[in-house]
Structures are given as structure tokens and as C-alpha cells.
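ok trying this again, last paste got cut off
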Amino acid sequence: MNYFTIFPLLVALLHPGYFSYLTPYSLSSIRISPKTYTGGLSPVIGHAKFPVQWHVAQWGILDELPITPVWLGANHWQLSNAYGIVESKNDEGTLRLSLDSTNAQFGCGEFDLNIEPDVKFVYPAYPEPMLPFDDRPTLATATNLRYGALQEVSSAFQGTRCPGVENLASTMMALTFLNLTSHQVIFYQVVTYDSRGAEFNGFWFFSGPTEFGVNDSVDRLGGNALKVGEGPLFYDLDILPRIKIHIANGPTGLDKDLSHWKVSGLYLSANTNGEAKIDSNHGYIFLIGQ
């Protein structure tokens, strides 16, 4: 068995006292979520080695990606159209995400491809590759929360169609946190590449009443930003101190009680806004805690 198909479990074993939020998986087989949320996912794409419990969500794309792969080798498949590419190159489960929003029909809108586990709160009909929600610690009892992945930006382009800073290409690692007491969710996004060179230090892009979202640049967590064409970086980020700060200092209406918050999901993504293109690679995801 390839080392990286059981990567989350092995990372936890290498950190004594930690547990893995993620069960063994491989991204060499996935499903696709339609561009308009229905709660359903495509049939399995690729040759499954583990139960397929991950998908790629496509938000803002003009035409949905096909769900019948083109096979380029024994373990090498691709889904593509004029606007996007999802490609699995090997058994290790690294996915290539390529986005092109240079077509004027995109206007100044956002286009995202997100690698996500099938979480029960969003896709209840599918198995979940995460520790059962009831067994996850709250942010009050957790002592550590480490989120890791490999990411790479092979190429990127930022155009001029939209005003100001609205044209951009980016990559990020994100966690979602759910509060079943206040019925609120936080999207915490760590930006690992921004074509504009923008810096984020707790920028709230959603401020309630039920959905909250906050951005940090990766250097706020001790990492380095990706550079185009300079190869991949492997991130191992301690999320817990930052999310505690953000909750304590969050917008009015946000429940500040850490005992009400738990990790609910994650995503790795490549994104464009306005006139832009990006070609990127993502994989080797782990999420471990104490």
C-alpha cells in the first residue's frame, strides 16, 4: 500500500498523544458536487481503493465539469472543460485543480474548486471520512489542532477586466467550525497564495448572523506563502491559537463560548475572481488534535 493513502493516520502516529480526525483515504478516487447545491454527488470517479468519502465542489463555474473521466494512464484520469480541470495523477491522491475565468461571461464573479470530505451536515446520504461529530473535542477542551497538506501553484495569471483588486487567483486551506447551540458556522480560511500579494490578519468576510468567515495569510501561522513555479510546500499549521483569538474578538452576535464550537469539516481550494487563471496541486491532507 502506498504510504500516502494512509497519511492522516500515520501523521497521528508520528505525533504521540494525538488522534486523527480523518480515517484512511485516497484522493485517487472522488466524487464531484454539482455547481448548484442539491445534496447529491456524482458517481465515483477513478478506481476506488478505500470507500470514496471525498469530493470536489465547483462553485461559480459557467459549465459543469463532466463526470466521465478521460483516462491518461493506469491511475491517471482527468475531468476538464474550457473553464476547469480536475486531474488525479497517481495513487498517492494528489489532485490538480486548474481554473480559467478569463472568459468575459464570468464578469467579476468568484470561481472555486474545493477538495472536501463528505460531511454529514452537508451530504447526509454519503459516508463521512471523519471522526464522529460527538467524539470530537470542543475548542474549549482541545489543546492542539494541527492541519496539514501539500500545495503548489504551477502557474497563475491576474487580468484587468474588473476594477480595483477584484481580479485575483489564490489557493487556501480552510476549516469549518460548527456551533449547535447558537446554530452558527465559521469558515476559517488560511490563504497560501494570493496573486495580488494581499495580506490577511483576521479579515471577516462573513459577519453573521449564522454564517461567519475569517481569513488569515499563512504567515500568521508560521508558514510561507506559495510562489508560482517554485514547487510544492508541505504545511503543518497549528490552527487552535488563531481560531480562539478570532472567536474572542469576532463580530457582534458571534457566540464566544469555546465549549460550543467543534471542527465540522475542511477544504483545500484554488480560486479565481474576475479575470484570472491558476494551475495548482493539492494533497496529503491531515487533521490531528489533542
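PB: full thing came through this time. Residues 240-248 form the longest helix (9 residues).
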